[in-house]
Amino acid sequence: MAGIRTYTMVYIALLALGTGKFVLFEIPQFSQTVAIVGTLILAVIKISLIAGYFQHLIEEPRSISYMMGLAVFMVFLLTIAAGYSIQ
């Protein structure tokens, strides 16, 4: 199990990533497209940190992680299919 130092480092990283999302939209040198793509990348990193450390998935066997990844991919496919059928 991870210690307080690890959780503190993850928390600081999450704060930095949240600040990065704010900076992407507030600095005028970044276009809207760059800000949105950057926000999506930062969100994936934040999700990975939260799932890995705060939900303790980093300590689980790899097969469970692969199964969770497959489930997320299937939800993504269903979302695309639902969006396509609405049009």
From TrEMBL:
Chief location of this protein within or outside the cell: membrane
Q: Membrane-spanning residues where?
A: 7-27, 33-54, 66-86
The protein's topology relative to the membrane is: Multi-pass membrane protein
> What does the UniProt entry say about where the protein is found?
Cell membrane
Supply the alphabetized keyword list: Cell membrane, Membrane, Transmembrane, Transmembrane helix
Source domain of life is Archaea
> Is Transmembrane helix tagged as a keyword?
yes
- From the Swiss-Prot or TrEMBL record, give the protein name: Cytochrome C oxidase subunit IV
